[in-house]
């Protein structure tokens, strides 16, 4: 397993020594002199490259190879080797990881992926139109009314806002039941399916109970924030239920605040979430309320969609302050293999949601005309 | 529930607006104008203070009150409200949280705490002398030999290195069984107990299995890294087994790299881990291999030990590059209610571990003479 770092080296530091320190810190946590030869050879990371980044002042691209066995082929220990102790140091950023097939093969990755979610929703050749049920504080009835209006407008996919938990003022089961019923009623009128992804959050037992209930009610997937629930919970939910998994980036921002320390967004929200079972990965689009650049978003998109061994491709879900006005630019950047998630801007005012959704679908149609005839768009007038 | 932030305000930003944005982002994620009056009043955070930090240039101490109900009284949703979306913004640091009794009362906190761990180990009036079994790559036999030597030297507590997982080359059960046997044999010779805390890591099911096995073998506790396993797993392990929980800070460093963004160490490694059940919290001591300041370490110590409603106090475990030479300074800073954890420096060379441990205990004795007579020190000559 090869980990690629970007390291900013202090004036009085030597990049070779620093890299060797990392290779030890992430494995044996002892000076080499204290180690028997076999452990030095078979356990300690091996520094393979320390290249100055052209044009930079003491920023280096470092590559260290680790024996894959030390990950114990599981996610928490992988995170440990990746960034456990060195997260407590400074100016170290994880750029990417090259996994050997023996590691990848232990993971299923996206259970449905790009094609599987298209099949679930019956949409081909165009992006998926999605919204978020919000705000926290609305009752199950009110959220179900929003879900129904979005479905009547012809939208493809609804996720809960990630702030919706199993609240006393909006219990999970009641919300899921009512929203699913509203979507069924709408589907009877329109003949078109609208997918629903409720948010699962709580203790491990609560998350499994919620996912099981969602599946029993015919939900198509769940929304889950891996850095709130524990990353391995994503893998478990993905493997256990017949539910597509949409990941939310809540709490991941601590990795990205300083580009000189942490983990590159494309590896975390792209490759790693995909490996752990994300069928769809929500991330903050450039130009919205958060600070990702267009380039970073493109890298996330690529990490989700690129061919990667046996793992299915996953959906990019650029979000965070999008509106109907964002669609032309999103169409240019993301094309048809993406979920266009418009939340607050679509929901306000609530009584115009069905009309706004129709406008959403018409705008998509103008950008993806080929899909309009056979790709799951509503007939005019419905 | 009141959250206290430190916010660095840009030149063209207004701290009032910025604070209101946070209060919305962490709750409704919508403009106020789009909200009914009840949600504005009952769900959205209320900005209570925005005070310029004296002597700073646009750094503000901000306090926002949130209705505690929105946490759903559970850890993942609490993390979500605390820092979910705003982790993706910049220059926001969580300083502290004032929890209402209705939240605290849902949590047990440290199951054993300061006094309970003293009782388990039979040590009073002085710090605990601890070491870490390492490095990764050693066999169960080799690690058990180290454990036995440390016990024969009179040490109080052994934890696994946090890099030890359920590896093919050192399976968890074999390691626990052999280490426990070695400690029993040593105790028969010395008459003194030495506690053992194996490291639990893996899927949720694996962690519970490991903890259960550890308890069945008479382990006194477990080591667990909450930001690898998911923070709520700490709470569950603490509540489920009769095991003391020692937390490891692996992967928490992403919160601390930039003091202008993230979470203050004392809140995360102190208060929050304690709330979730940490009986002992390992953190990087100042002067070691990591960059915490003496002041930050003092704040962690205080967060673990201070009176806090019904929650028991927990042990500070300053670590990360400590040696026998560090003891005088540690004694001055931490006194007797702390675990002095010396890892690599004590283990090298391995064949002198028993002697080095005796030296460790004698050094403690000189600093805490009152405990030497009745506080669990070995008699001279054992």
Name some characteristics of this structure:
homodimer; 382 residues; alpha/beta; five-stranded mixed beta sheet; four-stranded parallel beta sheet
Write a structural description.
The structure is a homodimer of 382-residue chains. Chain A is α/β, with parallel strands linked by helices. Chain A is 40% helix and 17% strand. The first copy, chain A, is built from 16 helices and 13 strands. Chain A has helices spanning 15-25, 37-42, 75-83, 101-104, 113-121, 140-152, 172-190, 204-216, 226-229, 231-240, 265-275, 294-305, 327-334, 344-347, 353-367, 369-374; strands spanning 2-8, 46-52, 59-65, 92-98, 128-133, 157-160, 195-197, 221-224, 244-247, 262-263, 280-284, 315-319, 339-341. Chain A has a five-stranded mixed sheet. A four-stranded parallel sheet of chain A has the order 7-6-5-13. In chain A, α6 (140-152) packs parallel to α15 (353-367) and α11 (265-275) packs parallel to α12 (294-305). Chain A is elongated. The interface between A and B is large, with 82 and 82 residues.
């Amino acid at each position: 397993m090869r980990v690629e770092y970007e390291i900013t080296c202090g004036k009085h530091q030597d990049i070779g020594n620093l890299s060797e320190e990392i290779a030890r810190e992430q494995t044996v946590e002892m000076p080499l002199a204290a180690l028997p030869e076999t452990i030095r050879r078979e356990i300690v990371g091996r520094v393979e490259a320390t290249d100055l980044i052209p044009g930079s002042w003491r920023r280096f691209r470092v590559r260290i190879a680790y024996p894959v066995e030390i990950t114990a082929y599981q996610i928490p220990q992988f995170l440990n080797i990746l960034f456990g102790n060195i997260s407590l140091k400074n100016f170290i950023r994880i750029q990417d990881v090259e996994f050997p097939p023996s590691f990848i093969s232990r993971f299923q990755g996206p259970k449905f992926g790009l094609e599987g979610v298209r099949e679930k929703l019956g949409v081909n050749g165009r992006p998926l139109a999605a919204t978020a049920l919000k705000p926290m504080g609305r009752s199950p009835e009110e959220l179900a009314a929003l879900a129904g209006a979005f479905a009547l407008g012809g939208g493809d996919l609804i996720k809960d806002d990630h702030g919706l938990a199993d609240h006393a003022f909006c219990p999970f089961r009641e919300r899921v039941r009512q929203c699913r019923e509203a979507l069924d009623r709408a589907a009877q009128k329109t003949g078109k399916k609208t997918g629903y992804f409720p948010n699962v959050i709580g203790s491990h037992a609560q998350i499994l109970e919620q996912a099981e209930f969602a599946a029993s009610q015919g939900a198509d997937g769940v929304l889950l924030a891996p850095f709130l629930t524990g990353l391995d919970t994503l893998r478990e939910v993905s493997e256990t239920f017949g539910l597509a998994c949409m990941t939310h980036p809540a709490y991941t921002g601590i990795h990205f605040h300083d580009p000189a320390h942490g983990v590159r967004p494309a590896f975390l929200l792209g490759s790693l979430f995909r490996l752990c079972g994300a069928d769809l990965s929500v991330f903050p689009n450039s130009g919205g309320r958060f600070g990702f650049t267009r380039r970073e978003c493109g890298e996330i998109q690529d990490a989700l969609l690129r061919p990667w061994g046996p793992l299915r491709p996953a959906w990019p879900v650029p979000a965070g302050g999008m509106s109907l006005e964002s669609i032309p630019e999103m169409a240019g950047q993301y094309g048809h293999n993406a979920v266009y998630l418009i939340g607050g801007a679509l929901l306000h005012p609530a009584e115009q949601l069905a009309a706004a959704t129709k406008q959403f679908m018409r705008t998509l149609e103008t950008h993806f005309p080929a899909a309009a005839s056979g790709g799951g768009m509503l007939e005019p007038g419905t």
